[in-house]
Structure formats: C-alpha cells, structure tokens
Amino acid sequence: MPSSEITTNTTTINVEKTSNTTFSDAIHKKFPNAQKTVVLAGNPNVGKSLFFNAYTGMYVNVSNFPGTTIDIPKGMMQGYKAFPNTLLMDTPGVYGLSALSEEERVAEEAIRNADYVINVVSALSLERDLFLTQQLIDYGLNMVVAVNQMDEAEARHLTIDLASLEKHLGVPVIPTVATAREGLTQLIEALPKASKGLAIPDCPSPEELLLLETQPLRRMQIYGLRRAHVNAVAKNAVFTPKSKSGDTVSLSQRLGQALLNPVFALFSMLLVLFALYQVIGIWVAGDLVTLTEGKFMLGQDTGLWPGLVPIMQSLIGKLVAPGSIAYTILGGEFGVLTMSVQYIFGVLFPLVLGFYVYISILEDCGYLPRIAVMADALLMRIGLNGRAVIPLILGLGCVTMATVSTRVLTSNRERTIASTILAITIPCSAQLGVLIALMAKAGGVSAWAVYCGTLLIILTVLGSALNKLLPGRSSGLVLDLPPMRLPNIRNIARKTWVRTVVFLQEAAPLFMLGSLLVSILQATHGLEAIQNALGPVIQAVLHLPAQTAQVFVMGLVRRDFGAAGLYFMADKLSAIQLLTCLMVITLFVPCFASATVIWKERGMREGVLVLAGSWILAFGVGALLTRVLSLIPILQG
Amino acid sequence: MSLMQPTLEQACIGENCIIATIGDPETAMLALRLGVSEGEQVTVISRIPGGPVVLRQGSRELALGRSICQHIQIIPQSQQLHSVGDTDSFRIPVAKAVSCFQ
Predict the structure, then answer these.
(1) What percent of chain B has pLDDT over 70?
(2) Structure pTM?
(3) pLDDT < 70 positions in chain B
C-alpha cells in the first residue's frame, strides 16, 4: 500500500494512504464513462439530497448515520452540457471530517477523491455550517459553496452578505433555493471556477493537517482556531434584524416557549394525535382507501370499471391456466401481481403519503423538534433519545414505514432498540382499526386500560432490557429548534414526495417477495398445515378456539385480513378471549412485509431474533393475560 | 479548580453563561463543530425536568440532552463580574448553584 512520510517537528511518521486507489477503481468500474467526479458535502438537513435529485434525476434519502455499510448515492449528471460524463456523489450529512465515526470516514473518502466539491450550507445556520466549509478549505479542496434556504432566511428577515463570504472564504459562493430549483444552474456554471479557498491563518499543509487532526490535543487546538475564524467570518456576513427596544415577544416565540412546558406539550400532543386519528384514520384509511382499493383496484360499486385486479387476473388467466399453481402464485388471492399490487398502491400508498404529509407539516412548523425535546427524558430510559418520536409516530401508521425511518437515529444501537419496539409493541393503523372496532365488545374502557397498560409495561421493560444488554451507549440529543412558523407548502410537497418514493422503492419489492412466499404456501396447502398445527397450541396456551389460528395466520399476511376473520368470530368469544386475542395479535410481528423490511434494514440475525422473540413474547403474555383476567374480574361481560 | 465549576445541567433559566470547558472529548468535538465552543456565550431558555436544556446562542435555539450537558462546564452570570483570565474570581456561590439544581 502506498505510504508517505511526514516529518513533524523531529518525529517521522508513516502515514498510509489507504484506499485512494481502491475507491477510485471501484467507482470507475461501476461508472466507466465518468471522466470527472463531483461530491456534495454539508451538514445534515441542509438540503443536499435535493441537489442530488435535481442534477441526476434520482431519488434517494441519504442515510445520515452509522449502519453496517453506508450507501453513497452516485449518479451521472444529466443535462448540463458543461459537464458531460460527470459522476455526482452525495455524502452523509456530517458536521466535520474525522476518522472517529463511520459516516465521517465515508464522507472524507469520497471528498478526498473528488475533482470538485459542492459544499452546501444553510443560510439559517451559517455560523454552524461554515465550520465544515472551513475544514474543507483547510484541506485544500477545489470547491464552491451553495448557500441554500435563502427563501427561509428572507422570511426570517436575515440578510446574508454573499460578497463578504466569497471574499473571506476565497471560493465562489452561490445562493440557492433548492426546493424551488433556484440557483441550481448558476451553481453548475460556477463549478469550473471552483478554487482552493483561504485557509485559517498559519494553517499547516493539507497533509500535515490530516495527520495533526488525528491527535486529540492538536485537533482541539486547530478546531478552536477554526471555530474562532468561522465565527468572525459569519459575523461579517450574517445580519439579523435589530429587535426594537421593549418589543413584545412574537407569537411564534411564545408558542415555542409554551411547547416546552410539559402540561401544554402533552395537551397539544393529544390534540395532534386526535387530528391524526381523524384525518388519517378516518379520511385517508377510510374514505380514500375505499376509493383507491375498493373502487380502483377491486371495482366495487363502480359502474363500468371492473377494477384493476380483476383485469390483471384475466390477463394472467390468458397466459397460465386458471387454477394452476402458477396462476395461484401470480394472480390468486395472495398473488404477486394481484394482492401485492392492490395492497401497495391501493392501501399503502395513500396511507404512507398521508402520514408523511402529516409528519412533514409537524416538522416544518417547528412542532416536532419541540416534542422531541419533551419526550427525550422518557425515551432516554429505553436507550433512545428525542429523535425517536418520528419513527414511533410513523409506527402508528405503518410499522414498515416506521422501520425504514429509523435511519434518522444517530447510532446503530438506537436503531435496533427502536425497530424492536416498533415491531413488537406499536400497533399499526390496520391494527388500530381492528382494535377500535372490537374493544367495545371486549369490555370498553376497562379493556382499553388493560390493553394500553400491558403494552406500556412491555415497551418499557423491553426497551430498558435492550438498553442494558446492547453494548455501547446511545447518543444524547442535539437538536436545533427552528422558530415556529406556518408550514411552507413547497417544502412539505417535496419532503413528502421524496420520502414516499423512497419508501415504495424499499418496501414494494419486499411486499412482493412476501406475497410470493404466502401464495406458494397457499398453493402447496402450507397455510392450512400451519393453521392446523397452530390450532391446538392456541387452545392450550391461550384458551382460544382453534379457529383463531386462521385469524393469526391471515393477520401475518395482511393485518386487515386477520381483522375480517376476527369480526366474524367476535360474537362467539368472551370478552377475556377477545382481549387476549387482540393483545397477541398486537405483539407478534405485524405482517410479512414488515418482517422482510426488518430483515433488510437490521440484518438476518436481528430479524430472526425479533421474529422469534415477538412470537414467544406474544404467546407468553397472552397466556398470562388470559389467566390473570379470569382470576381478577376487571372486564365486564 | 474545574471540578468545582457548575455544568450546563445546573444552570438556571434565564442565566447568561459562558462555556468554560467541555470535559468529554467526543462531546467537545461535536460541540465545537456545532458552534458551542469554549468562550461562547449562551442563555438558558428552558430546562426540561430530567430532560434536555434549551439554549439560545446568538439567533438560534438549541436543545442539548442531559447526558451532554453533564460534560459542559460553564461560568455562570454571577461569576462574570471579573475578567475571565482573573483566576481569583472563580468563587463558587454554592447556594445559588444548588437552588437551580433539579
């Protein structure tokens, strides 16, 4: 491996230049046409992925935080004559470059091998963001700086002196509004003028710097100097409006402050959850899905339109004999081309879209970060931090979608804990639908109390146990609190669209795989066999009739299928039996799709552990519950 | 000397403090990059019981979790009467520190 010797003071140290050649080789193998590489670098949440999407046409959510491997989105730039055959790479959002964390290592490697660097900073947090900018400059990189979110800065009456920035940084500075695609062409046009900027005073050479920043004491020294320099640059470039003396605190500030009060926050959360139930639960999951699944997919109650699924089925019927195994697998009840298409586009798509709109609104208006702050103390007890509110809320919509969103969590450990809790204790909207319909029969308020109480206990115990058993330490919360404001429609549209597309890209193939497995099972009578085997176990352990096995197995395929079976059985079950059944269904892994997503996101070993664990826990708790409830008459009827 | 200095966890609401030292190296690195560096002046806006501390630094509001605040030592407002370089001035008004400690 090539190495270089660097002499610092009187010591000579060998520095191995690792993987310079292997990284470039790998890139050129995959993209043989690429003559130049451009890399996007910047802090988390400055909008880098929007640039990537605009220049390459590809949709990706960059996974910001450590995982087993970090995917660097790469794509050829489309449509810029000055840059044909140019590869664009997006890096994980980082606050600085060092060898101390996985995503920084990965970002550093990509940046080091680039011909040009586009450093994206946010006009709203220049003082913070310019630290990385200055570090990149100190490393002698060819770069341009894009100051994004200029529209939001204007809305907050901030003035950014771009000329001053250009002067002090020594590199081209271009204002952009990525959500409106403004400034993107100018940015590319400025790229040929990319230059090495003005390093901090008395800065060592890039090679020396690389070495010095690996030594803790020297690093702190250099960081301190860099931070002071950046603060001075920012001071000359960012102007906040002078507040009039004795002015009243704005409504936005009052609201933001009020949300940091526990009582107000809790109250607002109840309101927000109620709105969620009303908008998503009733309108989206109810009325909209009736339209997309019932009418469009299945052709129910429409005049002339037979429904997409019957159309598919007749097409498939022309290729393979109806009734054959091939037909069952492709076009049968759980067919890959019928049920999975029906479910993905008829049910999931509107639901996921609705949820992402909802979360994006909460994020954009500044509500969500404050709720994250309020929830942090509680979440710390189960090894998570405030950021986990996002996946947990999304879990109420679709656990699959929520598992994908655990990528926003800062460490692998947190993702494991969050995914497990989601899989085992959080009921998805399909499940909630069943619960709401049947809880009245199970004993109404007292049933809800038992149900929620048990779930909360399990959540806490499980989370705390994982927190103690998993190695390492979960990260503390570090969160910017943007001012409260009315949400920006363009932001919401963009965020929602990107997230929905990414989710469908990730989940759709897995759903299809799931339905493939299920239809194979059905065609080979495997489903029946499983139900027959499960029946006696359910009777003995849970004191439920053997037919409930069908509810469980169907519930594994699609949550609402299980629900249908349960409605028919509900009259024949006692309240205790019904509640036990609902509890067990909640606890074991939601559906095939989420099981496959867990396996994909968390790996085979974790996936299997969660699956097996959830079944054992579900049956264990069910067994306990049914016996306890018989002894202690909490439920009426 | 630094053992006696209060941390961000103990700061009072409304207090203007100067970041003194950040004990844990990882936290220090993260904090520096975010602009919460030694010598910075911050105001404590809110303290969530058992939870994060919310700061105002310049025009931005920032929330830092308890576990992070424990490592950040500060010079509270009450001690800022003298210049920072004057070591005699690091008297700790114990009563005040305790009253903010939740």
Answers:
(1) 66
(2) 0.77
(3) 1-4, 38, 78-102
Whole-angstrom distance, CA of residue A604 vs CA of residue B34:
36
d(CA A564, CA A554): 9
Interface with chain A: mutation pick from B19, B26, B27, B34, highest number of A CBs within 10 Å: B34
Residues of A in Cβ contact (< 8 Å) with B61: 256, 480-483
Asked if A380 lies within 8 A of B67 by C-beta distance, the reply is: yes
Task: Write out chain A residues lying below 8 Å of B46, CB-based.
Answer: 257, 260
- Residues A367, A293: Cα–Cα separation, whole Å: 33
Nearest to B68 among A158, A260, A478 (CB): A478
Q: Which residue of B has its CA nearest to A265?
A: B48
By three-state DSSP, how is residue A508 classified? helix
Q: Which residues of chain A make contact with B37, given a CB cutoff of 8 A?
A: 223-224, 227-228
Q: With an 8 Å Cβ cutoff, are A478 and B63 in contact?
A: yes
Contact between A419 and A76 under an 8 Å Cβ cutoff? The reply is no
At A496 the three-state DSSP class reads: helix
Is-contact A634 A446, C-beta < 8 A? yes
Give the per-residue pLDDT at A122: 92
Q: To probe the interface with B, which of A215, A389, A481 has the most B CB atoms within 10 Å?
A: A481
Specify whether the CB–CB gap between A507 and A400 falls below 8 A.
yes
Comparing alpha-carbon positions, the chain B residue that sits nearest to A377 is B51
Q: Is the backbone of residue A546 left (phi > 0), alpha (psi -120 to 50) or beta?
A: alpha
- The 10 Å Cβ neighbour count of residue A52 is 26
Give the torsion through C-alpha atoms of A299, A277, A600, A612, to 10 deg: -100
Residue type, B30: L
Q: In what order do the strands lie in the sheet with B60-64?
A: A478-481, B60-64, B53-57, B41-47, B16-22, B72-75
Separation between Cα atoms, residue A479 and residue B12, nearest integer Å: 20
* Rounded Cα–Cα distance for residues A388 and A378 (Å): 11
Bridge partners, residue B60, by sequence: B57
Q: Give B-chain residues touching A374 at CB under 8 angstroms.
A: 48, 51
- Could you report how far apart the first and last alpha carbons of chain A are, in Å? 76
Give the span between the Cα atoms of A228 and A197, in whole angstroms: 17
Least confident of A15-19, A452-456, A459-463, A526-530: A15-19
β partners of residue A552: none
Nearest to B64 among A257, A380, A477 (CB): A477
Domains of chain B, earliest start first:
8-93 (2.30.30.90)
Looking at chain B, how many residues does it have? 102
| DSSP calls for A418-469 | HHHHHHHH---HHHHHHHHHHHHHHTTHHHHHHHHHHHHHHHHHHHHHHHHH
Give the separation between CA A301 and CA B73, rounded to whole angstroms.
68
CB contact under 8 A, A373 and B38: no
- For the stretch B67-71, contacts whose Cβ atoms lie closer than 8 Å and that sit 24 or more positions apart, written own/partner, are B67/A380, B67/A476, B68/A476, B68/A477, B68/A478, B68/B27, B68/B30, B68/B31, B69/B7, B69/B8, B69/B9, B70/B7, B70/B8, B70/B9, B71/B7, B71/B22, B71/B23, B71/B24, B71/B27, B71/B28
Rounded (10°) angle between helices A489-523 and A48-56? 70
Answer for the pair A586, A427: CB distance below 8 angstroms, yes or no.
yes
B-contacting residues of A 441-480, CB under 8 Å?
A: 476-480
Give the per-residue pLDDT at A69: 47
Contacts of B27 in chain A (CB under 8 A): 476
Q: Chain B residue with minimal CA distance to A474?
A: B67
> Rounded to a whole number, what is the distance in Å from the CA of B64 to chain A's nearest CA?
5
* ipTM above 0.95 for this complex: no
Cα–Cα distance, A171 to A188 (Å, whole number): 14
Joined tokens for residue A114:
């680039």
